UniProtKB/TrEMBL annotation:
It comes from the Bacteria. InterPro entries: ACAD10_11_N, AGP_Transferase, Aminoglycoside_PTrfase, Kinase-like_dom_sf. This is Acyl-CoA dehydrogenase. The lineage of its organism: Bacteria, Bacillati, Actinomycetota, Actinomycetes, Mycobacteriales. Gene3D superfamilies: 3.90.1200.10, Phosphorylase Kinase, domain 1. Residues 27-270 form the Aminoglycoside phosphotransferase domain.
Length: 323
Protein backbone atom coordinates (compact mmCIF):
# COMPACT_ATOMS: atom_id res chain seq x y z
CA UNK A 1 0.00 0.00 0.00
CA UNK A 2 1.31 3.49 -0.91
CA UNK A 3 2.23 5.69 2.04
CA UNK A 4 -0.34 8.32 1.05
CA UNK A 5 -3.16 5.78 0.96
CA UNK A 6 -2.01 4.19 4.20
CA UNK A 7 -1.84 7.59 5.93
CA UNK A 8 -5.43 8.34 4.95
CA UNK A 9 -6.64 4.93 6.10
CA UNK A 10 -4.79 5.11 9.43
CA UNK A 11 -6.24 8.56 10.03
CA UNK A 12 -9.70 7.10 9.50
CA UNK A 13 -8.98 4.36 12.04
CA UNK A 14 -7.72 6.80 14.68
CA UNK A 15 -10.28 9.61 14.37
CA UNK A 16 -12.91 7.85 16.51
CA UNK A 17 -10.23 7.49 19.22
CA UNK A 18 -8.21 10.71 19.02
CA UNK A 19 -10.68 13.13 17.45
CA UNK A 20 -12.28 13.94 14.09
CA UNK A 21 -9.50 16.31 12.97
CA UNK A 22 -6.70 13.75 13.37
CA UNK A 23 -4.19 13.63 10.51
CA UNK A 24 -1.12 11.45 9.95
CA UNK A 25 2.32 13.00 9.56
CA UNK A 26 5.82 11.63 8.93
CA UNK A 27 4.76 8.06 8.13
CA UNK A 28 7.83 5.93 7.47
CA UNK A 29 8.59 2.22 7.31
CA UNK A 30 10.97 0.86 9.91
CA UNK A 31 13.32 -2.09 9.70
CA UNK A 32 11.01 -4.93 10.56
CA UNK A 33 10.85 -8.63 11.26
CA UNK A 34 10.11 -11.46 8.89
CA UNK A 35 6.41 -11.75 9.67
CA UNK A 36 5.13 -8.21 10.29
CA UNK A 37 5.73 -4.76 8.79
CA UNK A 38 6.32 -1.87 11.19
CA UNK A 39 5.65 1.81 10.52
CA UNK A 40 6.29 4.88 12.67
CA UNK A 41 4.24 8.05 12.38
CA UNK A 42 2.83 11.06 14.23
CA UNK A 43 -0.90 11.42 14.83
CA UNK A 44 -1.72 15.14 14.89
CA UNK A 45 -4.98 16.29 16.47
CA UNK A 46 -5.08 20.07 16.73
CA UNK A 47 -2.04 21.09 18.75
CA UNK A 48 -1.51 17.55 20.09
CA UNK A 49 1.10 15.35 18.39
CA UNK A 50 1.50 11.69 19.38
CA UNK A 51 4.31 9.41 18.22
CA UNK A 52 2.78 6.05 17.33
CA UNK A 53 3.71 2.68 15.83
CA UNK A 54 1.71 0.62 13.34
CA UNK A 55 2.32 -3.12 12.99
CA UNK A 56 0.57 -4.92 10.17
CA UNK A 57 0.81 -8.17 8.29
CA UNK A 58 -1.28 -10.86 6.59
CA UNK A 59 -3.05 -13.39 8.79
CA UNK A 60 -1.54 -16.88 9.01
CA UNK A 61 -1.77 -20.03 11.11
CA UNK A 62 1.58 -19.50 12.87
CA UNK A 63 1.41 -16.07 14.47
CA UNK A 64 -1.04 -14.71 17.01
CA UNK A 65 -3.73 -12.38 15.73
CA UNK A 66 -3.37 -8.68 16.41
CA UNK A 67 -6.30 -8.64 18.81
CA UNK A 68 -4.73 -11.45 20.81
CA UNK A 69 -1.39 -9.60 20.87
CA UNK A 70 -3.14 -6.53 22.25
CA UNK A 71 -5.02 -8.54 24.88
CA UNK A 72 -1.96 -10.34 26.23
CA UNK A 73 0.10 -7.14 26.31
CA UNK A 74 -2.64 -5.54 28.40
CA UNK A 75 -2.66 -8.57 30.71
CA UNK A 76 1.13 -8.51 31.07
CA UNK A 77 1.17 -4.76 31.65
CA UNK A 78 -1.42 -5.15 34.41
CA UNK A 79 1.04 -7.22 36.46
CA UNK A 80 4.08 -5.04 35.86
CA UNK A 81 5.65 -6.04 32.55
CA UNK A 82 6.84 -3.06 30.49
CA UNK A 83 4.73 -3.07 27.32
CA UNK A 84 3.59 -0.51 24.74
CA UNK A 85 0.23 1.20 25.26
CA UNK A 86 -2.06 -0.24 22.57
CA UNK A 87 -4.62 2.20 21.13
CA UNK A 88 -6.39 -0.19 18.78
CA UNK A 89 -5.92 -3.65 17.29
CA UNK A 90 -7.99 -5.50 14.71
CA UNK A 91 -7.85 -8.85 12.97
CA UNK A 92 -10.01 -7.46 10.16
CA UNK A 93 -8.56 -6.89 6.70
CA UNK A 94 -11.23 -4.34 5.85
CA UNK A 95 -9.72 -1.20 7.36
CA UNK A 96 -6.03 -1.33 6.34
CA UNK A 97 -5.88 -4.31 4.01
CA UNK A 98 -4.34 -6.53 6.69
CA UNK A 99 -4.78 -7.08 10.42
CA UNK A 100 -3.07 -4.32 12.40
CA UNK A 101 -2.10 -2.98 15.81
CA UNK A 102 -1.38 0.66 16.69
CA UNK A 103 0.48 1.50 19.88
CA UNK A 104 2.53 4.28 21.42
CA UNK A 105 6.12 4.71 20.29
CA UNK A 106 8.67 4.01 23.03
CA UNK A 107 12.08 5.66 22.93
CA UNK A 108 15.11 3.43 23.04
CA UNK A 109 17.23 0.96 21.12
CA UNK A 110 16.57 -2.60 19.94
CA UNK A 111 19.77 -3.32 17.99
CA UNK A 112 21.76 -5.49 20.37
CA UNK A 113 25.30 -4.51 19.43
CA UNK A 114 24.44 -0.84 19.95
CA UNK A 115 22.92 -1.68 23.34
CA UNK A 116 26.01 -3.65 24.32
CA UNK A 117 28.27 -0.68 23.55
CA UNK A 118 26.27 1.46 25.99
CA UNK A 119 26.65 -0.93 28.93
CA UNK A 120 29.29 -1.26 31.61
CA UNK A 121 29.40 -4.13 34.09
CA UNK A 122 26.96 -2.53 36.54
CA UNK A 123 24.39 -1.46 33.95
CA UNK A 124 24.63 -4.84 32.23
CA UNK A 125 23.83 -6.61 35.49
CA UNK A 126 20.99 -4.17 36.15
CA UNK A 127 19.50 -4.79 32.71
CA UNK A 128 19.71 -8.55 33.28
CA UNK A 129 17.69 -8.17 36.50
CA UNK A 130 15.12 -6.01 34.70
CA UNK A 131 14.72 -8.66 32.00
CA UNK A 132 14.21 -11.30 34.68
CA UNK A 133 11.59 -9.13 36.42
CA UNK A 134 9.75 -8.53 33.15
CA UNK A 135 9.67 -12.24 32.37
CA UNK A 136 8.47 -13.10 35.87
CA UNK A 137 5.64 -10.60 35.42
CA UNK A 138 4.68 -12.06 32.04
CA UNK A 139 4.47 -15.50 33.61
CA UNK A 140 2.09 -14.16 36.28
CA UNK A 141 -0.28 -12.64 33.72
CA UNK A 142 -3.80 -13.88 33.07
CA UNK A 143 -4.21 -16.56 30.41
CA UNK A 144 -7.89 -16.03 29.60
CA UNK A 145 -7.52 -13.94 26.43
CA UNK A 146 -9.73 -15.26 23.60
CA UNK A 147 -7.69 -17.27 21.12
CA UNK A 148 -4.80 -18.04 23.50
CA UNK A 149 -3.87 -21.70 23.03
CA UNK A 150 -1.57 -24.25 24.61
CA UNK A 151 1.47 -25.38 22.63
CA UNK A 152 3.93 -28.22 23.10
CA UNK A 153 7.33 -26.92 22.04
CA UNK A 154 8.82 -30.29 21.07
CA UNK A 155 5.78 -31.42 19.08
CA UNK A 156 5.61 -28.04 17.30
CA UNK A 157 9.17 -28.17 16.00
CA UNK A 158 9.02 -31.89 15.24
CA UNK A 159 6.06 -31.11 12.99
CA UNK A 160 7.82 -28.17 11.33
CA UNK A 161 10.88 -30.27 10.53
CA UNK A 162 8.81 -33.18 9.21
CA UNK A 163 6.91 -30.81 6.93
CA UNK A 164 10.17 -29.86 5.21
CA UNK A 165 10.97 -33.51 4.54
CA UNK A 166 14.64 -33.05 5.44
CA UNK A 167 16.49 -33.51 8.69
CA UNK A 168 19.98 -34.11 10.11
CA UNK A 169 21.42 -36.86 12.28
CA UNK A 170 22.11 -34.36 15.05
CA UNK A 171 18.54 -33.06 15.04
CA UNK A 172 17.16 -36.61 15.18
CA UNK A 173 19.47 -37.55 18.05
CA UNK A 174 18.36 -34.43 19.92
CA UNK A 175 14.67 -35.24 19.43
CA UNK A 176 15.22 -38.78 20.70
CA UNK A 177 17.19 -37.54 23.71
CA UNK A 178 14.44 -35.06 24.54
CA UNK A 179 11.76 -37.75 24.35
CA UNK A 180 13.76 -40.05 26.63
CA UNK A 181 14.64 -37.42 29.27
CA UNK A 182 11.60 -35.14 29.38
CA UNK A 183 11.13 -33.77 32.92
CA UNK A 184 7.74 -33.80 34.65
CA UNK A 185 5.49 -31.01 33.37
CA UNK A 186 5.36 -27.74 35.29
CA UNK A 187 2.29 -25.49 35.71
CA UNK A 188 1.16 -23.77 32.53
CA UNK A 189 1.62 -20.01 32.25
CA UNK A 190 1.50 -17.20 29.70
CA UNK A 191 4.59 -17.64 27.50
CA UNK A 192 5.91 -14.78 25.36
CA UNK A 193 7.42 -17.22 22.88
CA UNK A 194 10.23 -14.98 21.61
CA UNK A 195 11.62 -13.25 24.71
CA UNK A 196 15.18 -12.31 23.77
CA UNK A 197 17.57 -9.48 23.11
CA UNK A 198 16.47 -7.87 19.85
CA UNK A 199 12.82 -7.97 20.91
CA UNK A 200 13.39 -5.63 23.85
CA UNK A 201 13.60 -1.83 23.80
CA UNK A 202 16.42 -0.54 26.00
CA UNK A 203 16.56 3.15 26.89
CA UNK A 204 20.05 3.91 28.13
CA UNK A 205 20.66 0.89 30.35
CA UNK A 206 17.02 0.37 31.32
CA UNK A 207 14.44 -2.02 29.91
CA UNK A 208 11.70 0.14 28.39
CA UNK A 209 9.42 -2.40 26.71
CA UNK A 210 8.95 -6.01 25.62
CA UNK A 211 8.02 -6.24 21.92
CA UNK A 212 6.97 -8.81 19.31
CA UNK A 213 4.24 -10.85 20.94
CA UNK A 214 3.19 -12.73 17.81
CA UNK A 215 4.32 -16.13 19.20
CA UNK A 216 2.51 -15.77 22.54
CA UNK A 217 0.82 -18.92 23.87
CA UNK A 218 0.25 -21.00 26.97
CA UNK A 219 3.15 -23.22 27.98
CA UNK A 220 5.86 -23.81 30.56
CA UNK A 221 8.02 -20.97 31.93
CA UNK A 222 11.16 -22.84 30.91
CA UNK A 223 10.47 -22.17 27.25
CA UNK A 224 11.00 -18.41 27.71
CA UNK A 225 13.87 -18.81 30.20
CA UNK A 226 15.82 -21.13 27.91
CA UNK A 227 15.15 -19.16 24.72
CA UNK A 228 16.73 -16.06 26.30
CA UNK A 229 19.88 -18.08 27.00
CA UNK A 230 20.82 -19.79 23.73
CA UNK A 231 23.96 -18.74 21.89
CA UNK A 232 22.13 -17.02 19.02
CA UNK A 233 20.78 -14.31 21.34
CA UNK A 234 23.97 -13.39 23.17
CA UNK A 235 25.30 -11.84 19.94
CA UNK A 236 28.96 -12.72 20.32
CA UNK A 237 29.22 -12.46 24.10
CA UNK A 238 31.24 -15.23 25.79
CA UNK A 239 29.63 -18.38 27.27
CA UNK A 240 29.97 -16.88 30.75
CA UNK A 241 27.31 -14.35 29.68
CA UNK A 242 24.93 -16.85 28.11
CA UNK A 243 21.81 -15.07 29.40
CA UNK A 244 21.22 -12.58 26.60
CA UNK A 245 24.87 -11.56 26.56
CA UNK A 246 24.22 -9.78 29.87
CA UNK A 247 25.26 -12.27 32.53
CA UNK A 248 25.31 -15.88 33.57
CA UNK A 249 22.34 -18.21 33.42
CA UNK A 250 22.64 -18.70 37.19
CA UNK A 251 22.37 -14.95 37.79
CA UNK A 252 19.42 -14.68 35.41
CA UNK A 253 17.53 -17.53 37.05
CA UNK A 254 18.27 -16.19 40.54
CA UNK A 255 16.97 -12.75 39.52
CA UNK A 256 13.86 -14.36 38.01
CA UNK A 257 13.12 -16.26 41.21
CA UNK A 258 13.82 -13.17 43.34
CA UNK A 259 11.32 -11.21 41.21
CA UNK A 260 8.55 -13.62 42.11
CA UNK A 261 8.92 -16.09 39.29
CA UNK A 262 8.17 -19.75 39.87
CA UNK A 263 11.06 -21.74 41.33
CA UNK A 264 13.30 -23.04 38.56
CA UNK A 265 14.50 -26.65 38.44
CA UNK A 266 18.03 -26.40 37.03
CA UNK A 267 17.97 -29.91 35.56
CA UNK A 268 14.69 -29.16 33.79
CA UNK A 269 16.17 -25.91 32.48
CA UNK A 270 19.05 -27.84 30.90
CA UNK A 271 16.50 -30.01 29.06
CA UNK A 272 14.74 -26.87 27.84
CA UNK A 273 18.04 -25.38 26.67
CA UNK A 274 18.31 -28.36 24.33
CA UNK A 275 14.73 -27.70 23.16
CA UNK A 276 15.48 -24.03 22.54
CA UNK A 277 18.69 -24.75 20.65
CA UNK A 278 16.99 -27.40 18.52
CA UNK A 279 14.13 -24.96 17.86
CA UNK A 280 16.58 -22.39 16.54
CA UNK A 281 18.18 -25.01 14.32
CA UNK A 282 14.82 -25.96 12.80
CA UNK A 283 14.01 -22.26 12.29
CA UNK A 284 17.33 -21.78 10.46
CA UNK A 285 16.53 -24.75 8.22
CA UNK A 286 13.00 -23.44 7.65
CA UNK A 287 14.32 -20.02 6.59
CA UNK A 288 16.74 -21.68 4.21
CA UNK A 289 13.86 -23.68 2.74
CA UNK A 290 11.97 -20.47 2.01
CA UNK A 291 14.93 -19.40 -0.14
CA UNK A 292 15.75 -22.77 -1.70
CA UNK A 293 12.14 -23.49 -2.64
CA UNK A 294 11.84 -20.15 -4.42
CA UNK A 295 9.08 -19.01 -2.08
CA UNK A 296 11.14 -16.00 -1.00
CA UNK A 297 14.52 -15.61 -2.68
CA UNK A 298 16.79 -13.86 -0.21
CA UNK A 299 20.50 -13.77 0.55
CA UNK A 300 19.57 -13.11 4.19
CA UNK A 301 17.45 -16.26 4.40
CA UNK A 302 20.17 -18.29 2.71
CA UNK A 303 22.72 -16.95 5.22
CA UNK A 304 20.47 -17.90 8.13
CA UNK A 305 20.27 -21.39 6.66
CA UNK A 306 24.04 -21.73 6.90
CA UNK A 307 23.69 -21.44 10.67
CA UNK A 308 22.12 -24.89 10.87
CA UNK A 309 25.58 -26.36 11.34
CA UNK A 310 26.33 -23.91 14.17
CA UNK A 311 23.21 -25.09 15.94
CA UNK A 312 24.22 -28.73 15.46
CA UNK A 313 27.52 -27.91 17.14
CA UNK A 314 25.68 -26.29 20.05
CA UNK A 315 23.43 -29.35 20.40
CA UNK A 316 26.43 -31.69 20.40
CA UNK A 317 28.06 -29.50 23.04
CA UNK A 318 24.96 -29.54 25.25
CA UNK A 319 24.54 -33.31 24.87
CA UNK A 320 28.18 -34.26 25.32
CA UNK A 321 28.30 -37.29 27.59
CA UNK A 322 24.51 -37.68 27.52
CA UNK A 323 23.08 -41.17 27.34
Amino acid sequence: MAAETLSADVAGVLRPILGPTTEIDNLRALTGGASRTTWAFDAVTGSDRRALILRTGPPDDVHAGMELEAAVQKAAGAVGAPVPDVLIASDSVELLGNPFLICGEIAGETIVRRIQRQLDDDSRARLLRQCARALAAIHRAATDAPGLTEQDAVAEWRHRLDEMGETTATFEWAFRWLAKHRPPPSPLRLVHGDFRMGNLIVDGSGLAAVLDWELVHIGEIYEDLAWFCIRAWRFGAPPSMAAGGLGSIDDFVAAYEHAGGTGVDRAALRWWLVVATLRWGVICRFQAERHLSGQSRSVELAAVGRRVCETEWDLLDLLEGAS
